[in-house]
Amino acid sequence: MNVTNNHGSIDSLAISPLNKGLGAFQQPVTAAEIKALNWNLLREDLSLPTAVLYEERMNHNLQWMQQFVSEYGVKLAPHGKTTMAPKLFARQLAGGAWGITLATAHQTKVAYQHGVRRVIMANQLVGKQNMAIIADLLADQSFEFCCLVDSADGVDQLGAFFQARKQQLHVLLELGPDGGRTGIRNPQQQAAVLEALARWPDNIVLAGVEVYEGVLKEEADIRGFLQHAVACTKQLAKDGRFAARTGGAAARPVILTGAGSAWYDVVAEEFAKTEIGLPLDVVLRPGCYLTHDVGIYRAAQAQIQTRNPIARKMRTELQPALQLWAYVQSIPEANKAIIALGKRDAAFDAGLPLPAAHYRPGNPAPDTTPAHWQLTGMMDQHAYLQIKEDDDIKVGDMIGFDISHPCLTFDKWRQIAVVNPQHQVIDVIQTFF
Amino acid sequence: MNVTNNHGSIDSLAISPLNKGLGAFQQPVTAAEIKALNWNLLREDLSLPTAVLYEERMNHNLQWMQQFVSEYGVKLAPHGKTTMAPKLFARQLAGGAWGITLATAHQTKVAYQHGVRRVIMANQLVGKQNMAIIADLLADQSFEFCCLVDSADGVDQLGAFFQARKQQLHVLLELGPDGGRTGIRNPQQQAAVLEALARWPDNIVLAGVEVYEGVLKEEADIRGFLQHAVACTKQLAKDGRFAARTGGAAARPVILTGAGSAWYDVVAEEFAKTEIGLPLDVVLRPGCYLTHDVGIYRAAQAQIQTRNPIARKMRTELQPALQLWAYVQSIPEANKAIIALGKRDAAFDAGLPLPAAHYRPGNPAPDTTPAHWQLTGMMDQHAYLQIKEDDDIKVGDMIGFDISHPCLTFDKWRQIAVVNPQHQVIDVIQTFF
């Protein structure tokens, strides 16, 4: 893969000295140059609060998921909205991912500009400027792209736009459960969308079927919904609805895709053996596995490790690879420390960050934190840490926090340092939110 | 004020075509160049979702607050953490603000690099790299800076660092109420901090007293706490504790400062007439007034308009100046539309965004939205809009949302378009989070 943008390779992208969470430098530097600066988190070379990615853990997770999908013979298009870090996209693709999933036209443009050439935009493409962004990228014949449709209005708007541009857009029929988010709910809606597609035969190509099962909470409901998606895909194949996708010189396999980060094992089980009488790519789209967490996704993964035979057989688990580090800035009451970390720095919508490591500058190594150290609240720039009266904690100590919900943590940082187990900064990834 | 950074003036900062929420351009452009591109929100020239600032409303709010503090004869140091937009800092300073308040060393560096030369860092300065950032800025003698202290440990760490650097740091004694956030709670703690300050007479200068009253909820408690701060400041003056600040060739007034965006009127009333027998600057630090909102700060401002005689006399009110715009992407159920707007785009910790305007591309102007259109939930990239079965709403319609909590909305955007009442883009501000 050609990991470049207008400015050269990802490693030569300039990182601004005005970004938070980094060490001292005066002029923009490249990620390649940062390694040579030899920063170490525990030597206080970084301005805290900061976010760090643990290289070994991230690599472990990357290989874990690739092995998992390989066991099922399905393909992986990790959801890139989680990290929005093209350097991580490149590692996922180099590690065997089939493509990258994204949520918006803007995100797709960012990925394309950094070398990604196969994208599922797991969302409807709406609006003149967003359609123009995608149309411009599709001028590159090597760029494989599809997005979702779930309404006749949406199809007609796409049809009119891409007809005027004399271009062809590939779309997936999105199915959704009652009470869910987007997606076709019933046969009448589906018929209306198929009728609309028939109005734009030269410009809108039906490429497959998409679901997001994560809006459901019960395994039985999810399996039923996934089986409905399989049946629907078979029927569409039987009815010849994928002819434009699979015929002709530019023929491509039909796509059947689902899976967020909580139920990808069940989607693999339900989708893997699907036969529709046409070439078919089954594609899973988890995004959070790369960094994992100790909150909602640890809980979800524990379920997967319990219920899924392949995951059990692998005998290793995903590891939390993203941490936040911040200083104790005040201990104004005997049982309360104030940490210089806030909603500006960490996700807080699915549980607050969890104290994991305690380091006093000058000590040989961090300690684990006592179980009773817990955040009880966060403001924009502060967190409340519950402690006990005689705990060994001082202003100026550093606390490392594990997180819950990587997506809303990544988007607080324009770059994140990658560290080795000795907390040496060995790389920097940039984000594009 | 010299509004420049290493790259030239704020208007010549390059805006990346990879940022979300803008119109079409291929190479980095300057804010000055963007005006010439003649984008209009309602002509769908921007990629939605996007955030826009209404120029007239922002100007109105800026003047409103400046008039308010002038009536009390106090000074304004707007909290810059809200917007982290140096171009808005420059407008606040040009409009009469005394300085800018910030929360971290990183934020202070960003402000300094864009020309701000007087900063209250309303926080403890902790950690080697953070101290180094401030020490580097203090090499510029024209830079006036002070931060907070509330512990002897903190003072000693600052003392050791700035003594080694042979520099002088000005600090404010932070007072905090029991059950609150940072700040000295009792006379024993205060004595310990003052003793610590006495250990570093050449390097740490006591410059005044600071409070953040916003952790309290009742007016009577707040007035009591503020009166305590006034009494404390008087006693410190009487005890000669400000001698290093007010004496010598580089003498400056003592600072007494408080006020978030909810109780600044009460702080003005309690602090304005303070006499300590020394030159004194009373400084208020609200941050959210510039854009205001229709949530927590509208509610807080309504209280101010009711209880404060100056606010009543002014006869105008703050206006919400920040909106988010997004497309209807799906109407999968009769009473539910899915909007392409999510937690990645808007604050959600103090109420969800509120639908305000509905625009169908091609129509002459937006309509106000029916009162029953309400967001019922938000995911990372989607929002659920409650509608009724026969409402006139279509996929591809644009919805403008007012917001609650500007701070956590600004930090979702690397730049925000400034528009006139015709929704023409007349400027762009960049943020540095």
UniProtKB/TrEMBL annotation, chains A, B:
GO molecular function list: lyase activity
Residues annotated as domain D-serine dehydratase-like: 321-420
Pfam families membership: Ala_racemase_N, D-ser_dehydrat
Keywords: Lyase
InterPro entries in the cross-refs: Ala_racemase_N (IPR001608), D-amino_acid_metab_enzyme (IPR051466), D-ser_dehydrat-like_dom (IPR026956), D-ser_dehydrat-like_sf (IPR042208), PLP-binding_barrel (IPR029066)
Keyword Lyase attached: yes
SMART domains per the UniProt record, alphabetical: D-ser_dehydrat
Annotated family: Belongs to the DSD1 family.
Protein name per Swiss-Prot or TrEMBL: Low-specificity D-threonine aldolase
